[in-house]
UniProtKB/TrEMBL annotation, chain A:
It is an enzyme of class 6 (ligase). Coiled coil: none annotated. GO terms for molecular function: ATP binding; glutaminyl-tRNA synthase (glutamine-hydrolyzing) activity. This is Aspartyl/glutamyl-tRNA(Asn/Gln) amidotransferase subunit B. The gene is gatB. Allows the formation of correctly charged Asn-tRNA(Asn) or Gln-tRNA(Gln) through the transamidation of misacylated Asp-tRNA(Asn) or Glu-tRNA(Gln) in organisms which lack either or both of asparaginyl-tRNA or glutaminyl-tRNA synthetases. The reaction takes place in the presence of glutamine and ATP through an activated phospho-Asp-tRNA(Asn) or phospho-Glu-tRNA(Gln). Pfam families: GatB_N, GatB_Yqey. Its EC number is 6.3.5.-.
UniProtKB/TrEMBL annotation, chain B:
This is Aspartyl/glutamyl-tRNA(Asn/Gln) amidotransferase subunit C. Allows the formation of correctly charged Asn-tRNA(Asn) or Gln-tRNA(Gln) through the transamidation of misacylated Asp-tRNA(Asn) or Glu-tRNA(Gln) in organisms which lack either or both of asparaginyl-tRNA or glutaminyl-tRNA synthetases. The reaction takes place in the presence of glutamine and ATP through an activated phospho-Asp-tRNA(Asn) or phospho-Glu-tRNA(Gln). Keywords: ATP-binding, Ligase, Nucleotide-binding, Protein biosynthesis. It catalyses: L-aspartyl-tRNA(Asn) + L-glutamine + ATP + H2O = L-asparaginyl-tRNA(Asn) + L-glutamate + ADP + phosphate + 2 H(+); L-glutamyl-tRNA(Gln) + L-glutamine + ATP + H2O = L-glutaminyl-tRNA(Gln) + L-glutamate + ADP + phosphate + H(+). Its EC number is 6.3.5.-. Belongs to the GatC family. InterPro entries: GatC. Heterotrimer of A, B and C subunits.
């Protein structure tokens, strides 16, 4: 382990390449299904298998999905798109080339805003987002002499989101990935599942002395199947590279693989020692031209983005940053909350209900908000019951809410009435209860009057007990103090 | 344009081709000739002309995102030099 003092001399420089599988029904250039998890080599066609004489044809929706991501990241959308062949021989690539974009990616520039744990905000600059196709899946099984190849995945549409070398800590990398995942899920263009490989990340990592003008030699790390592992790989590479520089050992630009078991990276010894992809324009595809009308139609169909909702929740609803963060974590939660806020104006109470009782119910049963039995209307009605002083929060959350979950057809008011929970806020009916409590506790009343003000809580408890929890605490307190303090 | 033997070796590696010394010599000469011939294009002044990427003047030849016919599984595997009932089999890529 390096001392903090040594590490402090260096700056970490990271750029991330994220591949996102697009949620189209069919592949990028062929009509094969993209469905996940079927029998191997059943979702293939002559095109996917690279048979001679076959011609690709671009999936319109995949182009639209790429544009959506670009719009969400404030990228410039390229109006005339051409495709390129990236040539290399590998068993998972039957054509011998991948159809991708080289010069003129569909989205140029842009940024992804991130918030770090200390509350500070940064924007990570993007280089580009381009469209391409996935390769097949190779399996290298232990004890097997061959590599097995499944081409169901070959040709599935991907976008590759390339960041500038703009990331300065593993925490920033993590936050960036969380944001990318949130964006693709809000846009409904990728399911964001890193474990299943629908979101994949490679990291270009280098170190340099603080204040240096030139970046160090970069190392590309692959094979990290979770956000946490990306952060771990970055932390390890920083240590490894700083130690090398300190010892005067030259860092070589190479591809390394991350081992989740050890947290270490190791050089990948591949037979392909020189990468020369010999890009050239794909002659089988005509250009894709994004007209003003087409772009406009995609713009108007864009859903609200997490940062827009976050802004709305903070500025229009007056919620704390923390609440807005939790409520925009997923599109579905945010959507439910928006509906709820159309029915109630008590936004903070609505937020508390979402972050408290609603979330804990969903977590407990591992449900999604789509399966939540209580409608926004009912939850708003429950909040109204509290605001009107008919029930207090603990009765609402502990007695009415569980009933509502079991019986979503009833209104909160109905349940409150049936269970006889409507709060007694009528002074006339509460006064006898207060008086009898005080009459039964003469000694305590004397103590209170001689200065033991803490006894108020005990009197309240008795009133609550006698009223079977229905006494409105505000009215009861008022009545108690009127009698005791006079 | 003269092609040297190293270029031939590099191209052969990238294309996964193998040939012996005499073969390499022949290929080297062929490649040189081909490049010389194509080199004639350099005589044309292309200043200010947009690169041609496709022979067709069409744009936006797109298709709707719909699933079409798949190749039957046994047919898909039928041309493979090595296969089993599910997979294409290739020499082991990773150790």
């Amino acid at each position: 382990m390096l001392s903090a003092k040594i590490k402090d001399k260096y700056e970490l420089v990271v750029g991330l390449e994220v591949h996102a599988q697009l949620l189209t029904k069919s592949k990028m250039y062929a009509t094969d299904s993209t469905e996940f998890g079927n029998m191997p080599n059943t979702q293939v066609s002559v095109l996917t298998l690279g048979h001679p004489g076959t011609l690709p044809k671009v999936n319109r929706r995949a182009v639209e999905f790429a544009i959506k991501m670009g719009l969400a990241c404030n990228s410039t959308i390229t109006r005339k798109n051409i495709f390129a062949r990236k040539n290399y021989f590998y068993p998972d690539l039957p054509k011998g080339y991948q159809i991708t974009q080289d010069k003129g990616p569909i989205c140029v520039g842009g940024e992804v805003p991130v918030t770090l744990s200390d509350g500070s905000k940064r924007s990570i600059a993007l280089t580009r987002i381009h469209m391409e196709e996935d390769a097949g899946k190779s399996m290298h099984l232990a004890g097997e002499v061959d590599t097995l190849v499944d081409f169901n995945r070959a040709g599935v549409p991907l976008i590759e989101i390339v960041s500038e070398p703009d990331i300065r800590s593993s925490e920033e990398a993590y936050a960036y990935l969380v944001e990318i995942k949130k964006l693709v899920k809000y846009l409904d263009i990728c399911d964001g599942n890193m474990e299943e490989g629908s979101l994949r990340c490679d990291a270009n990592i280098s170190v340099m002395l603080k204040g240096a003008k030139e970046y160090g030699k970069k190392v590309e790390v692959k094979n990290m199947n979770s956000f946490r592992n990306v952060a771990r790989a970055i932390e390890h590479e920083f240590e490894r590279q700083v130690a090398m520089v300190e010892e005067g050992v030259e860092i070589i630009s190479e591809t390394r693989t991350f081992d989740a078991a050890t947290g270490l990276t190791a050089s990948m010894r591949t037979k392909e020692d020189l990468n020369d992809y010999r890009y050239f324009p794909e002659p089988d595809l005509s250009p894709v031209v994004v007209s003003e009308e087409w772009l406009e139609s995609i713009k108007v169909a864009m859903p609200s983005l997490p940062r827009e909702l976050h802004h709305k929740f903070v500025n229009e609803f007056g919620l704390p940053e923390y609440d807005a963060g939790v409520l925009t974590d997923s599109k579905e939660i945010a959507r439910y909350f928006e509906k709820l806020c159309k029915k109630t104006k008590n936004y903070k109470a609505a937020s508390n209900w979402m972050m408290g009782p609603v979330k804990s119910y969903l977590n407990e049963l591992t449900l999604h908000i789509e399966d939540f039995p209580v409608t926004p209307e009912q939850l708003a009605a429950l909040i109204a019951l509290i605001d009107e002083g008919k029930v207090n929060f603990s009765v609402a959350s502990q007695k009415i809410y569980p009933e509502l979950l079991k019986n979503a057809n009833k209104s909160p008011l109905q349940i409150a009435q049936e269970l006889n929970l409507i709060q007694e806020s009528d002074e006339g009916s509460l006064k006898p209860i207060v008086e009898s409590v005080l009459a039964e506790n003469e000694a305590k009343v004397a103590e209170y009057k001689s200065g033991k003000k803490g006894l108020m809580g005990m009197f309240m408890g008795q009133v609550m007990k006698k009223s079977q929890g229905k006494a409105d605490p505000k009215v009861a307190t008022k009545l108690l103090s009127e009698i005791l303090d006079n | 344009m003269k092609v040297d033997l190293n270029t031939v070796k590099k191209m052969a590696h990238l294309a996964r081709l193998e040939f012996d010394e005499t073969g390499a010599e022949k290929i080297k000469n062929d490649m040189s000739q081909i490049l010389d011939w194509v080199d004639q294009l350099n005589e044309v002044d292309t200043e200010g002309i947009e690169p041609l990427t496709t022979m067709s003047s069409e744009v936006n030849v797109l298709r709707a995102d719909e699933v079409g016919e798949h190749l039957a599984h046994d047919k898909a595997l039928s041309n493979a030099p090595q296969k089993d009932s599910d997979y294409f089999r290739v020499p082991k890529v990773l150790e």
